[in-house]
Amino acid sequence: MARAATTTDAFNAVAEPRRREILDLLARGERPVNDLVALLGVAQPQVSKHLRVLREVGLVDVRDNGRQRMYRLNGEPLKPIHDWVKSYERTWNERFDALDDVLDELKREDEDDGENR
Amino acid sequence: MARAATTTDAFNAVAEPRRREILDLLARGERPVNDLVALLGVAQPQVSKHLRVLREVGLVDVRDNGRQRMYRLNGEPLKPIHDWVKSYERTWNERFDALDDVLDELKREDEDDGENR
DNA sequence: TTGACATATTCCCATATAGGAATATCTTAT
DNA sequence: ATAAGATATTCCTATATGGGAATATGTCAA
User: Fold this and answer.
1) CB within 8 A of B13, min separation 6: which ones?
2) Which residue of B59, B81, B83 is the best one to mutate when testing the A interface, meaning the one whose CB has the most A CBs within 10 A?
3) pLDDT, tens digit (0-9, with 9 covering 90-100), for B59-103
4) Are A34 and A44 in contact (CB under 8 A)?
5) pLDDT digits over A11-56, tens only?
6) Closest-lying nucleotide for B66 based on CA to C1'
7) Strand C nucleotides, any atom under 7 Å to a protein CB
8) Quick check: B40 and B23 in contact, CB under 8 A?
9) Residue in A3, B65, B14 with CA at minimum distance from that of residue B22
10) Does the nearest atom of strand C lie within 7 Å of B34's Cβ?
């Protein structure tokens, strides 16, 4: 088997930095394709292709406006990424260390409790 | 150009679900390869290959222990993912809507203030 | 030393890019 | 109708998979 398609899920779609940039721009508000082309400095066809991937995973919605197509962010498909990565926050954030210590302490007391019965 | 290598960064490494599973297992503590093989139900060579990718992006560390190699999680490379996706939390979390309303309200009052001077 | 155990690497293959270039499609203005 | 503008699609190519199978490497045990 080959690598999963970029359109498989948000994880794959967002692995491409250019697509993250596009989402970052759209986070500021709805925009037509040419705006993105100008802001990104990327050829128009590539932008359209990236937008297609983002559309297929539901990260952007489109609306027709005359000859322009207005793209709008839809962050919801990012939630699984957020949920997954969130549980790892403690591994790099020292702020959790203190909490971990407390929890370990409680756990130890609990075990002592049990052994004393 | 082709798609970026899976070893380019954590975004790409973690786009593969099996690698996320491996990290999830290692989050419970250090483990030798064969443990992961058994727990994942995946052929050993594939596990070793996934571990190599994870090692190359720094998501796991290895330690030799006799004929086993103990793998340990290192979550730090996930921080950029967390940081990036965190800013989108408000787009799906309604809990932020109330906050947004408050901020809009404050902003409006501020603007009114300015115009009254 | 030899064999068993644990892990890593290599080879093969079907598949999917991402970007560049060219072109097609759709809409509005004249 | 025709041209111009905005966007999407197609074709091409180099590259990188992920899994399966076979094999190599490294280490301990008898």
Assistant:
1) B6, B7, B19, B53, B54, B56, B57, B59, B77
2) B81
3) 999 999 999 999 999 999 999 999 999 999 999 887 665 555 555
4) yes
5) 999 999 999 999 999 999 999 999 999 999 999 999 999 999 999 9
6) D27
7) 5-10, 14-23, 26-28
8) no
9) B14
10) yes
- What is the per-residue DSSP string for B37-66? HHHHT--HHHHHHHHHHHHHTTSEEEEEET
**How far B83 CA lies from chain A's nearest CA (Å)?**
9
Q: What is the pTM of this model?
A: 0.84
Task: Please give the structure tokens belonging to residue B17.
Answer: 């679900």
At A36, give phi and psi (nearest 5°).
-65, -40
Rounded distance between C-alpha atoms, residue B29 and residue B60, angstroms = 11
Q: Is the CB of A66 under 7 A from strand C?
A: yes
Interface mutation vs chain B, best among A7, A20, A49, A85, most B CBs within 10 Å = A85
Place of tokens 């498909």: A77
- Give yes or no for a contact between A70 and A33, defined as CB atoms under 8 angstroms apart: no
